Amino acid sequence: MATLASLRDRVRLELGDQGKSFVVQFMADGSTNRFDLSYSPVDAESLFVSADGADISDSSSIEESTGTLVTDSIPVAGAVMLVSGTYFRYFQNEDYDHFVTTAFSQHSHRRQDSLGREFTIETMPTIDEYPVALYASTLALYTLATDAAFDINVFAPDGVTIPRSERYRQLMEMIDSRREQYKDLCVQLGLGMYQIEVFNMNRVSKMTNRHIPNYRPMEVDDKSMPLRIDTPKNTYGDVQEPWPSQAEQLLAYEGYAFTHTKTFTGDFTGKVFQANLLNQRGSTYRVRPFNLTIVNPELINISSVARTEGQTTVTVVTDEAHGLNQGQSIFIWGVGDELLEAFDVASVVDGTTITFETPEYTSELDVTNSSGYVEPFGEKEYTATFSLTEEETRRLARRTWWSLAYKDASFEETVLINSVNVADAYSSPSGPGITELYGGNFYTERANEAVL
């Protein structure tokens, strides 16, 4: 598996810009804390600095591009300074990181894996590593050529001419050679910006204006589910509208239980959640609901609720200390449909008792119900766990859309179990009043095709 550091080392090898060690010893004059080491660029992570034998590396820093050492305090006059480390010929590590990421983004443009996911450096196939390093070295050579273009020829008094422009010409020849090498590799291996592309014809239905799917050829006696070919989507110049939720791609295997945990922060007081598999993003058709639990750590268990008939004051007693303040906004869960709404704390009687005011109700409240809860308004951290059983992962489409959404609570749609808020499935997975919080492609792969 490639990493940014491993690709950076390969580019350094291509350019002959591998690190070399240096040791500098000098005597401080007691007037400055800045010292020119005459080596640049320098790798800051390899730097070792001592003053009269004492290690002061932690209190020293270096300007990597110039090789200037800076100490936090001015060394005393006569102190023997010893500095060692690694320096390079052309570029710093962060320069190579920039060349590698730029080369990778251009090399992998519009490329996806067999599941339709975008490539990253970590998931890039091994066969792509050398072409990316080769193209990154070409970008580095362009930078050196730009610097050489500002050099001028030097004419010595004895008639000798030093043609500085010769360096620019040599660099451009190297660039042309590396560019042709990259192009040949791309053509022969079918990679990168010069790959020879083979297209599948996409047909569009006149009835729905949607693409008609293509499927992989299968043997006559193969009774398994058809495998869809994920062809690149043509935009035809359309501007893609950003989706309001945050996308994340998930993967499950047929016949294996699936569980995914998502932690998020926000104020969702008085909201219930649902998680579904949809046939496509924003669809009102639910392929299958997830088994969903939402852990809300700030739910406070109610042991009793009381209000005298004809009065408006409600007294709530909690199982343990509530930590609420007078005037604080709270939401009452699960104590009958009359008290599923927001209130303000009217008074704090003691550590486990509060009161709040309600409109005048006709019925008397006298409830002892362990499923009732008080929830204070404010930002909190929620943990959502949605799962599918082994049987539920069978016969799912190869690609669907998973969605975690929320809406205002109503008594019929809310079930509260201990400290876990489990929302019943809504009549529709999307529509007015329902907001998607997270979503993304949900891939289902056959277990015997998985590469572990």
Measure the end-to-end span: 13 Å
Describe the sheet with the most strands: 6 strands, mixed
Number of helices: 4
Task: Count the E strands.
Answer: 31
Q: What is the molecular shape?
A: flat
Return the structural class. alpha+beta
Give the low-pLDDT segments: 412-426
Helix content: 10-25%
Number of domains: 4
- Mean pLDDT, to the nearest integer, reads 82
Query: Which CATH architecture of the largest domain?
Result: Sandwich
What CATH first level of the largest domain would be assigned?
A: Mainly Beta
β-strand amount: 35-45%
The CATH topology of the largest domain turns out to be Immunoglobulin-like
Radius of gyration: 33 Å
Output the keywords.
4 domains; alpha+beta; six-stranded antiparallel beta barrel; six-stranded mixed sheet; flat; Immunoglobulin-like; 452 residues
